[in-house]
């Protein structure tokens, strides 16, 4: 749950975060009158901003806050870079939007996000509050899933689910599509994601491809992209881990 004071009254709502972010401890109400510098300072101090203004204004404020986030200094190393990225995510995650029942965002000029939210949070959802940055990510993921990503090696489109890596870079796909194979009896695709590599291997004539993944969204998306698993094939992470039993035979 998340708590805040608005118009002199204590308010509460369910907390919504598909990424598992914890609810903020301090929340203030904000709208289009709040300057970006003030919003950024409050967010850096750990105070979340519950937006009551125009939805497009919230997007503009989020972009302005992002421009104020300082990147790691060049040459500071991977650890410092990761620290800066983590701090940026925490800061920008402090701009919150409300959800009414049924995944409706009750803000001026808010888009219809019901379908995008239902894909991740389920059809039935109570009123809630969550980060705007995550909502924008859901909208983008919904468009990827709806339109799909064209994969030249397949001659088809792959439809990634939210939270699953989208094959927008084709180097590794082309490698699997073109590299010599030791055999065509059996192949394992561990951590299949969208299932794109499993589909490429099947297209190349591998007689049996076992694709596994620990993430349920990845498994659901891979089944949609490649078809349901055959009877007796491992489900890919239900309880036995990502690695199927046995191993690829020599010269498979």
Structural notes for this entry:
The protein is α/β, with parallel strands linked by helices. It folds into 2 domains: about 1-145, no CATH class; about 150-225, Rossmann fold (3-Layer(aba) Sandwich), CATH 3.40.50.150. Helices cover about 35% and strands about 20% of the residues. It has 8 helices and 10 strands. It has helices at about 35-45, 55-70, 80-90, 115-120, 130-145, 170-180, 195-205, 215-225, and strands at about 1-5, 10-15, 25-30, 45-50, 95-100, 130, 150, 155-160, 185-190, 210. The protein has a 6-stranded mixed sheet with strand order 1-2-6-5-4-3. A two-stranded antiparallel sheet has the order 7-8. Strand 3 (about 25-30), helix 1 and strand 4 (about 45-50) form a beta-alpha-beta unit. Helix 1 packs across helix 2 (about 55-70) and helix 4 (about 115-120) crosses helix 5. It is elongated and about 70 Å long. Residues about 235-240 have low confidence and may be disordered.
In short:
The chain has 252 residues and is α/β, with parallel strands linked by helices. It has helices at residues 36-44, 55-68, 78-92, 114-121, 132-147, 171-178, 196-203, 216-226, and strands at residues 2-6, 9-15, 26-30, 47-51, 95-99, 128-131, 149-151, 156-158, 187-190, 209-212.
The ordered H/E elements are EEEHEHHEHEHEEHEHEH
Count of domains: 2
Characterize the largest beta sheet: strand count, sense, and whether it forms a barrel.
6 strands, mixed
In whole angstroms, the N-to-C terminal distance is: 53 Å
Task: Give the overall shape, derived from the CA principal axes.
Answer: elongated
Oligomer: single chain
Low-confidence stretches are 234-239
Q: Give the helix proportion (percent range).
A: 25-40%
Rg, please?
Answer: 22 Å
The assigned structural class equals alpha/beta
Can you give the mean pLDDT? Answer: 88
- Approximately how much beta-strand content do the residues carry? 15-25%
Output the number of helix runs: 8
The main sheet orders its strands as 1-2-6-5-4-3
Number of strands: 10
């Amino acid at each position: 749950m998340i708590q805040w004071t608005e118009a002199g009254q204590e308010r509460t709502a369910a907390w919504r975060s598909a990424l598992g972010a914890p609810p903020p401890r301090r929340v203030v109400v904000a709208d289009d009158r709040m300057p970006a510098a003030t919003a950024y300072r409050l967010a850096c101090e750990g105070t979340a901003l519950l937006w009551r203004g125009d939805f497009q204004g919230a997007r503009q404020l989020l972009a302005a806050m992002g421009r104020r986030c300082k990147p790691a200094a060049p040459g500071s190393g991977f650890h410092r870079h990761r620290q800066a990225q983590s701090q940026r995510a925490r800061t920008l995650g402090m701009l919150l939007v409300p959800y009414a029942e049924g995944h409706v965002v009750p803000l001026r000029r808010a888009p219809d996000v019901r379908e995008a939210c239902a894909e991740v949070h389920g059809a039935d959802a109570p009123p809630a509050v969550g980060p705007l940055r995550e909502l924008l990510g859901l909208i983008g993921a919904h468009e990827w899933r709806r339109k799909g990503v064209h994969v030249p090696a397949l001659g088809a489109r792959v439809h990634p689910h939210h939270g699953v890596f989208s094959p927008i870079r084709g180097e590794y796909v082309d490698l699997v599509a073109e590299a010599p194979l030791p055999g065509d009896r059996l192949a394992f695709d561990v951590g299949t994601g969208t299932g794109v590599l499993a589909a490429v291997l099947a297209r190349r004539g591998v007689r049996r491809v076992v694709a596994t993944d620990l993430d349920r969204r990845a498994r659901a998306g891979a089944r949609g992209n490649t078809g349901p698993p055959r009877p007796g094939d491992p489900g890919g992470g239900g309880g036995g881990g990502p690695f199927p039993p046995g191993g690829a035979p020599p010269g498979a």
